[in-house]
Amino acid sequence: MDPECRGGPATDVFFVTMTPKVLAGAVLAYVYNGLLTRFPLRCARELYLRGYLGQFGRGTSVQMGCRFLNGRRVHFGAHNAIGFDCLFDGRIYDIRTGANVSIGPEATVLTLGHDPLSGDFRDKGGPVTIGDRVWIGYRALILPGVTIGEGAVIGAGAVVTRDVEPYAIMAGVPARKTGDRPRNLKYQLDFKPILL
Ligand SMILES: CC(C)(COP(=O)(O)OP(=O)(O)OC[C@H]1O[C@@H](n2cnc3c(N)ncnc32)[C@H](O)[C@@H]1OP(=O)(O)O)[C@@H](O)C(=O)NCCC(=O)NCCS
Asked: What is the C-alpha end-to-end distance of the chain, expressed in Å?
């Protein structure tokens, strides 16, 4: 057996030291992810998220079942519509969305992983930035370090591995450009479903 497997980690690269701040963060995350996220009153969840997230823009709504890994690094712009059961990973790097961003159900935004070529399982990641009026489809997966340009569309189930140019329509695994969205987008999202 690999000695690292028996005796614990060879380095402390991916282990978080337990400090009062880390413990407080874990408790705040648990209160939302484990208890509040399924509470069927959007305004109650919103109240918590306004204090917990790095930013919760005016007119934004987050549906039930969403989870946040370190919400302090998740910054939602104004008038975002976040679908149910999404995951936002702000463990080390920031996630920032612009205005009028729509994220479909069960989408995942990751900012952290490991370098597959590293002998000591070193962390690898980067911030994710999502521009104004981006529409992300059902079960899309956005990988660490990606910037999605204004107005772009990410198709259902797509895996976004690289930056996306503004107004591009992307689909597939890995996501490839399948078209262009018109540039005259004017809408403002005000999606506030009652029991979601
Ligand atoms: C990506 C999307 C917006 C494209 O819409 P569109 O431009 O009207 O696309 P079309 O139906 O004309 O398809 C264009 C091509 O892309 C392919 N395609 C479309 N969506 C795809 C997807 N999600 N994954 C892989 N390929 C896809 C089509 O098969 C078609 O390929 P072809 O030209 O070889 O036949 C749409 O298909 C989609 O995924 N919408 C998300 C719906 C959703 O998630 N809803 C819930 C949240 S609101």
From this structure: 48
Q: Which atom of ligand 1 is nearest to the CA of 139?
A: 44
pTM to 2 decimal places: 0.92
Looking from the CA of residue 153, the nearest atom of ligand 1 is 3
Check if the beta carbon of residue 181 is closer than 8 Å to that of residue 152: yes
**140 close to 160: Cβ distance less than 8 angstroms:** yes
Protein residue whose Cα sits closest to atom 25 of ligand 1? 172
pLDDT digits (tens, 9 = 90+) for 97-125: 999 999 999 999 999 999 999 999 999 99
pLDDT digits (tens, 9 = 90+) for 23-39: 999 999 999 999 999 99
Question: What's the number of CA atoms in the CB half-sphere (13 Å) around residue 102?
Answer: 17
Cα separation, 70 vs 185, whole angstroms: 32
Residue closest to 135 by CA, chosen among 97, 96, 161? 97
Encode 39-57: b = buried (16+ Cβ within 10 Å), e = exposed: eeebeebeebbeebbbbbb
Write the pLDDT tens digit of every residue in 131-146: 999 999 999 999 999 9
Catalytic annotation present for 114? yes
